[in-house]
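Hi F.,

I've been meaning to write this up properly since the lab meeting, where we talked about keeping a consistent format for the predictions we share between groups. The idea is simple: the sequence comes first, exactly as it goes in, then the C-alpha coordinates exactly as they come out, then a line or two of notes. No screenshots and no reformatting. I'm using this chain as the first example so we have something concrete to point to.
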Amino acid sequence: MLATIGSGSSSAQQVTQHAALQTDLQGLQDNAKRSQVRKPRVATAVAATDPATPEASAKPAKKPQSARGPYYVDFRARTAASYGHAFVWYGKTSEKKVDVAGLHPAGDQVPYILGHLMWVPSETGASYGDLDPQYLTANYRVYLNEADAQKVFAYIKHLQATSPLWNAQTTNCTAFIGRIASYMGLKVPFHLQRPENYINELKAINGGRQTAQLAPVAAAPALGDIPN
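Output, unedited:
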Protein backbone atom coordinates (compact mmCIF):
# COMPACT_ATOMS: atom_id res chain seq x y z
CA MET A 1 0.00 0.00 0.00
CA LEU A 2 2.84 2.34 0.83
CA ALA A 3 4.38 1.48 -2.49
CA THR A 4 1.15 2.30 -4.18
CA ILE A 5 0.93 5.62 -2.36
CA GLY A 6 4.54 6.31 -3.16
CA SER A 7 4.12 5.47 -6.79
CA GLY A 8 0.94 7.57 -6.88
CA SER A 9 2.78 10.52 -5.37
CA SER A 10 5.65 10.06 -7.82
CA SER A 11 3.21 9.99 -10.74
CA ALA A 12 1.49 13.14 -9.46
CA GLN A 13 4.85 14.91 -9.17
CA GLN A 14 5.77 13.92 -12.73
CA VAL A 15 2.44 15.21 -14.01
CA THR A 16 2.94 18.48 -12.13
CA GLN A 17 6.50 18.86 -13.44
CA HIS A 18 5.38 18.06 -16.97
CA ALA A 19 2.64 20.69 -16.77
CA ALA A 20 5.14 23.23 -15.43
CA LEU A 21 7.55 22.49 -18.29
CA GLN A 22 4.77 22.95 -20.83
CA THR A 23 3.86 26.28 -19.23
CA ASP A 24 7.50 27.41 -19.38
CA LEU A 25 7.84 26.34 -23.03
CA GLN A 26 4.63 28.16 -23.93
CA GLY A 27 5.93 31.30 -22.22
CA LEU A 28 9.23 31.09 -24.11
CA GLN A 29 7.41 30.65 -27.41
CA ASP A 30 5.19 33.64 -26.67
CA ASN A 31 8.21 35.78 -25.80
CA ALA A 32 9.93 34.69 -29.01
CA LYS A 33 6.90 35.67 -31.06
CA ARG A 34 6.68 39.03 -29.38
CA SER A 35 10.36 39.73 -29.94
CA GLN A 36 10.00 38.77 -33.61
CA VAL A 37 7.11 41.20 -34.01
CA ARG A 38 9.03 44.03 -32.37
CA LYS A 39 12.24 43.59 -34.35
CA PRO A 40 10.98 45.11 -37.62
CA ARG A 41 9.82 48.17 -35.68
CA VAL A 42 13.26 48.65 -34.21
CA ALA A 43 14.87 48.16 -37.58
CA THR A 44 12.50 50.66 -39.16
CA ALA A 45 13.22 53.25 -36.50
CA VAL A 46 16.95 52.78 -36.93
CA ALA A 47 16.66 53.06 -40.70
CA ALA A 48 14.74 56.29 -40.39
CA THR A 49 17.38 57.88 -38.16
CA ASP A 50 20.52 56.21 -39.45
CA PRO A 51 22.57 58.84 -41.35
CA ALA A 52 24.07 56.13 -43.50
CA THR A 53 20.75 55.35 -45.18
CA PRO A 54 20.12 56.93 -48.62
CA GLU A 55 16.95 58.71 -47.46
CA ALA A 56 18.69 60.48 -44.61
CA SER A 57 21.96 61.20 -46.40
CA ALA A 58 20.40 62.59 -49.58
CA LYS A 59 20.90 66.38 -49.88
CA PRO A 60 17.79 68.53 -50.37
CA ALA A 61 17.17 69.63 -53.93
CA LYS A 62 18.37 73.14 -54.69
CA LYS A 63 15.75 75.70 -55.52
CA PRO A 64 15.98 77.07 -59.05
CA GLN A 65 17.77 80.39 -59.13
CA SER A 66 15.81 83.47 -60.11
CA ALA A 67 16.20 84.66 -63.68
CA ARG A 68 16.19 88.27 -62.57
CA GLY A 69 19.23 90.30 -63.46
CA PRO A 70 21.10 92.48 -60.97
CA TYR A 71 19.97 95.73 -62.68
CA TYR A 72 16.54 97.26 -63.20
CA VAL A 73 14.46 100.00 -64.77
CA ASP A 74 11.43 101.00 -62.71
CA PHE A 75 8.67 102.78 -64.64
CA ARG A 76 6.87 105.02 -62.13
CA ALA A 77 3.97 107.44 -61.84
CA ARG A 78 3.29 109.93 -59.05
CA THR A 79 0.79 112.56 -58.12
CA ALA A 80 1.31 116.19 -59.16
CA ALA A 81 -0.58 119.46 -59.06
CA SER A 82 -2.14 118.56 -62.41
CA TYR A 83 -2.67 115.01 -63.72
CA GLY A 84 0.56 113.46 -62.49
CA HIS A 85 4.04 112.72 -63.79
CA ALA A 86 5.74 109.64 -65.28
CA PHE A 87 9.45 108.92 -64.94
CA VAL A 88 11.92 106.08 -64.40
CA TRP A 89 14.23 104.93 -61.67
CA TYR A 90 17.18 102.85 -62.80
CA GLY A 91 20.17 101.30 -61.11
CA LYS A 92 21.55 98.18 -59.44
CA THR A 93 19.44 96.10 -57.06
CA SER A 94 22.23 95.77 -54.50
CA GLU A 95 22.66 99.54 -54.18
CA LYS A 96 20.38 102.09 -52.51
CA LYS A 97 21.38 104.83 -54.91
CA VAL A 98 19.01 105.31 -57.84
CA ASP A 99 19.19 107.45 -60.95
CA VAL A 100 16.08 109.31 -62.11
CA ALA A 101 15.09 110.31 -65.62
CA GLY A 102 11.91 112.00 -66.74
CA LEU A 103 10.82 114.73 -69.13
CA HIS A 104 9.11 117.80 -67.67
CA PRO A 105 8.98 121.54 -68.39
CA ALA A 106 11.80 123.64 -66.96
CA GLY A 107 10.67 126.19 -64.43
CA ASP A 108 7.38 126.68 -62.62
CA GLN A 109 3.77 127.07 -63.72
CA VAL A 110 4.20 129.41 -66.69
CA PRO A 111 6.26 126.97 -68.84
CA TYR A 112 3.83 124.21 -67.95
CA ILE A 113 0.83 126.25 -69.11
CA LEU A 114 2.58 127.40 -72.28
CA GLY A 115 3.63 123.82 -72.95
CA HIS A 116 0.01 122.96 -73.73
CA LEU A 117 0.17 125.38 -76.66
CA MET A 118 3.77 125.17 -77.83
CA TRP A 119 7.13 123.58 -77.13
CA VAL A 120 8.95 124.86 -74.06
CA PRO A 121 12.42 124.16 -72.63
CA SER A 122 12.58 120.92 -70.70
CA GLU A 123 14.49 119.21 -67.92
CA THR A 124 15.19 115.48 -67.85
CA GLY A 125 16.40 114.77 -64.33
CA ALA A 126 14.56 114.29 -61.05
CA SER A 127 11.69 116.62 -60.23
CA TYR A 128 9.96 117.35 -56.94
CA GLY A 129 8.38 114.20 -55.52
CA ASP A 130 10.17 111.65 -57.73
CA LEU A 131 12.07 110.21 -54.76
CA ASP A 132 9.20 110.32 -52.27
CA PRO A 133 7.27 107.02 -52.02
CA GLN A 134 4.19 108.69 -50.54
CA TYR A 135 3.46 110.30 -53.93
CA LEU A 136 3.75 107.05 -55.89
CA THR A 137 0.58 105.92 -57.68
CA ALA A 138 1.88 103.10 -59.93
CA ASN A 139 5.11 101.37 -60.85
CA TYR A 140 6.37 98.55 -63.05
CA ARG A 141 9.91 97.24 -62.47
CA VAL A 142 11.79 95.26 -65.11
CA TYR A 143 15.13 93.54 -64.47
CA LEU A 144 18.14 93.39 -66.80
CA ASN A 145 21.41 91.53 -66.94
CA GLU A 146 24.61 93.56 -66.77
CA ALA A 147 25.33 93.66 -70.51
CA ASP A 148 21.82 94.85 -71.40
CA ALA A 149 21.72 97.27 -68.50
CA GLN A 150 24.80 99.06 -69.78
CA LYS A 151 23.10 99.61 -73.13
CA VAL A 152 19.76 100.67 -71.66
CA PHE A 153 21.32 103.07 -69.17
CA ALA A 154 23.42 104.62 -71.95
CA TYR A 155 20.26 105.01 -74.04
CA ILE A 156 18.48 106.76 -71.14
CA LYS A 157 21.34 109.22 -70.79
CA HIS A 158 21.25 109.76 -74.56
CA LEU A 159 17.53 110.60 -74.38
CA GLN A 160 18.19 113.02 -71.54
CA ALA A 161 20.84 114.79 -73.57
CA THR A 162 18.75 114.99 -76.76
CA SER A 163 15.31 115.97 -75.38
CA PRO A 164 15.49 119.76 -74.97
CA LEU A 165 11.76 120.46 -75.41
CA TRP A 166 8.53 119.51 -73.67
CA ASN A 167 4.98 119.62 -75.00
CA ALA A 168 1.86 118.30 -73.30
CA GLN A 169 0.52 116.53 -76.41
CA THR A 170 3.65 115.23 -78.12
CA THR A 171 6.97 115.17 -76.30
CA ASN A 172 5.58 114.66 -72.81
CA CYS A 173 6.59 112.49 -69.85
CA THR A 174 4.75 109.32 -70.92
CA ALA A 175 6.15 109.52 -74.45
CA PHE A 176 9.64 109.88 -72.95
CA ILE A 177 9.49 106.75 -70.79
CA GLY A 178 7.70 104.93 -73.61
CA ARG A 179 10.80 105.32 -75.76
CA ILE A 180 12.83 103.67 -73.00
CA ALA A 181 10.36 100.79 -72.73
CA SER A 182 10.35 100.31 -76.49
CA TYR A 183 14.16 100.20 -76.57
CA MET A 184 14.02 97.44 -73.94
CA GLY A 185 11.75 95.37 -76.19
CA LEU A 186 8.53 96.04 -74.29
CA LYS A 187 5.15 96.76 -75.85
CA VAL A 188 4.15 100.37 -75.40
CA PRO A 189 0.63 101.85 -74.98
CA PHE A 190 -0.60 105.12 -76.48
CA HIS A 191 1.06 107.99 -74.61
CA LEU A 192 -1.86 110.43 -74.26
CA GLN A 193 -3.26 109.22 -70.96
CA ARG A 194 -2.71 109.87 -67.29
CA PRO A 195 0.69 108.66 -66.03
CA GLU A 196 -0.86 106.23 -63.54
CA ASN A 197 -3.03 104.65 -66.24
CA TYR A 198 -0.07 104.55 -68.62
CA ILE A 199 2.12 102.60 -66.17
CA ASN A 200 -0.65 100.14 -65.35
CA GLU A 201 -1.37 99.53 -69.04
CA LEU A 202 2.34 99.19 -69.79
CA LYS A 203 2.52 96.40 -67.22
CA ALA A 204 -0.71 94.77 -68.42
CA ILE A 205 0.10 94.59 -72.13
CA ASN A 206 3.46 93.03 -71.30
CA GLY A 207 1.87 90.36 -69.13
CA GLY A 208 3.59 91.68 -66.01
CA ARG A 209 6.90 90.20 -67.17
CA GLN A 210 9.73 91.06 -64.81
CA THR A 211 12.70 90.61 -67.12
CA ALA A 212 13.76 92.06 -70.44
CA GLN A 213 16.48 91.02 -72.83
CA LEU A 214 17.63 93.12 -75.74
CA ALA A 215 17.54 91.58 -79.17
CA PRO A 216 21.03 90.61 -80.38
CA VAL A 217 22.54 93.02 -82.86
CA ALA A 218 23.11 91.43 -86.26
CA ALA A 219 26.77 91.23 -87.17
CA ALA A 220 27.89 93.22 -90.19
CA PRO A 221 28.61 91.01 -93.21
CA ALA A 222 32.22 90.36 -94.14
CA LEU A 223 33.56 92.09 -97.22
CA GLY A 224 33.72 88.81 -99.10
CA ASP A 225 30.00 88.20 -98.45
CA ILE A 226 28.80 91.48 -99.97
CA PRO A 227 27.43 90.86 -103.47
CA ASN A 228 28.92 92.84 -106.32
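Notes:
Confidence is low (pLDDT under 50) at residues 1-21, 32-66.
Residues 71-205 form one domain.

If this format works for you, I'll send the rest the same way.

G.
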